[in-house]
Write a structure and sequence with these properties.
Elements (H helix, E strand, L loop, with lengths): L1 E8 L1 H6 L10 E6 H10 L4 H17 L9 E2 L5 E5 L15 H15 L4 E5 L3 H9 L3 E3 L17 E5 L3 H10 L2 E2 L12 E6 L2 E8 L2 E3 L16 H11 L5 E6 L5 H14 L5 E5 L16 H5 L4 H11 L3 H9 L2 E3 L13 E5 L7 H8 L7 E6 L15 H8 L6 E6 L6 H9 L1
Parallel strand pairs: 1-2, 1-5, 2-4, 5-6, 7-9, 12-16, 12-17, 13-14, 13-15, 15-16
Antiparallel strand pairs: 3-4, 8-11, 9-10, 10-11
Length: 430
């Protein structure tokens, strides 16, 4: 055990990742007593949050047989876990003593006063708590287990524009219907899209192993829409390919990610490739939890499916088709919290606003995907509404980075806005 370090674990970390409770090997890990009270308030919640709270409670109860939590219990990974009650006199007088965060600060100051030579650190996803700690001279940091390390400009786009000097590359591609990928670029990921240029000549293609091949037609029998730009052509190709089971699409508002995905799902229904469309998203960022809203489940879900409904109406002129498919069970809308335990076969699954989900929430639904199904994760990684995640730690970013070179996955970043000139302008400068 590293006797020089003492980590205090905040509730936000335990609710974000249940395995964090035993993810600090060789470190003395302290759970402030107030954290147990906070976990207790979450244990009845549905979905990932409630499950995580219950898991941590059960885990702590289970290790009681190994020793006394007040004195510390050592795990097999040489991590020591203890529960420390708050020491009131260590809470600064100008802080509210009823606040849970302030209790954690009191525990941190108490431990530091008795371990002057040690690194006492608060581990929390709560930005405000980290700021408070810093202002009081207490070390604090984020929980970094689920976080990409590349800078924002280096996050995978799913496509790139490449200038070549050999015009034969262009000619050979059109003559043979493919070109060896290493003649264009030696560092392409599987299913990565390319714009290859040589002077005024160019072609669009996708890396499929050793070769760059043409895209599928952007005019599809069941998608009566023309792509408005190159990125949308890439998106249609990815959404309509049978060999890609996981699609991730990022882009600013109005770039067409929801519209194109919805049309691809409808196409799959009409061609009988899929039996149903599943639409889901996390609900918490919008405001009050779903249970506080009036009405039945359909009425409760209305505020969260506005973008889906709008796209149906824009394409079909009214919502007749939407309600018909919904009544027949061909379209199902379900909160992400209600997905656990289900299996989706013959389904086209849309996860809207996926940037507001943790990696653990998205893993839950991806592992629900069964035979003959495709799942599409949509979002804008620059618009995070969830308190404890950001551009680098949200589930969508992590998945597109970790799975960017898999044979059954694809990604496209949509750059250009197509909703309206005003919408595009606002996205850029406001």
């Amino acid at each position: 055990m590293d006797s020089r370090k003492i980590f205090l674990i905040d509730t936000s970390v335990l609710l974000y990742d249940k395995t964090s409770i035993h993810s600090f090997p060789g470190i003395k890990t302290v759970i402030p007593l107030v954290v147990l009270d906070e976990l207790d308030r979450f244990k009845e919640k549905q979905g990932i949050i409630g499950e995580n709270a219950r898991y941590v409670n059960r885990f702590l109860d289970g290790i009681r047989s190994l020793g006394n939590l007040n004195e510390g219990v050592t795990l097999e990974n040489d991590q020591e876990i203890s529960v420390e009650r708050n020491v009131d006199e260590k809470i600064p007088g100008d802080l509210d003593r009823s606040g849970g965060d302030n209790h954690i600060i009191g525990v941190a100051r108490f431990l530091k006063s008795r371990n002057i030579d040690k690194d006492v650190r608060v581990i929390t996803k709560d930005i405000n708590l980290r700021v408070k700690c810093d202002s009081l001279g207490i070390s604090a940091e984020d929980y970094y287990k689920d976080r990409i390390t590349v800078d924002k400009d280096s996050i995978y786009h799913g496509w790139q524009s490449i200038e070549v000097k050999d015009s034969n590359i262009i000619d050979d591609f059109f003559e043979n219907g493919k070109i060896q990928s290493d003649r264009v670029c030696k560092a392409l990921n599987l299913n990565e899209y390319v714009i290859v240029k040589c002077g005024k000549q160019s072609f669009l293609g996708v890396c499929r192993g050793k070769y760059i091949q043409p895209l599928v037609s952007d005019t599809h029998e069941f998608i009566p829409i023309q792509a408005r730009n190159k990125e949308q052509k890439f998106t249609i190709d990815m959404l309509t390919r049978d060999d890609i089971n996981l699609c991730t699409i990022t882009g600013r508002a109005g770039s067409g990610k929801t519209f194109l995905t919805l049309l691809a799902g409808i196409s799959g229904l009409q061609s009988k490739k899929y039996k149903r469309i599943i639409i889901t998203r996390t609900l918490e960022p919008v405001g009050k939890p779903i249970g506080y809203l009036p009405g039945g489940m359909d009425e409760k879900l209305d505020p969260w499916i506005g973008s889906i409904v709008d796209n149906f109406q824009n394409h079909f002129g009214d919502l007749t088709y939407f309600h018909l498919m919904k009544d027949k069970g061909n379209i199902e809308i379900s909160p992400l919290a209600f997905i656990r335990g289900r299996t989706f076969n013959d389904a086209f699954i849309i996860v809207d606003e996926a940037q507001n989900s943790t990696i653990h929430e998205l893993k839950t639904i991806i592992t629900r995907v069964g035979e003959n199904s495709k799942i599409v994760l949509l979002g804008d990684i620059d618009q995070i509404d969830t308190q404890y995640i950001d551009t680098y730690s949200n589930g969508l970013t992590i998945i597109l980075e970790k799975m960017k070179n898999e044979a059954i996955t694809g990604h496209v970043t949509l750059i250009k806005g197509e909703r309206s000139e005003l919408a595009t302008l606002a996205s850029k400068i406001i």
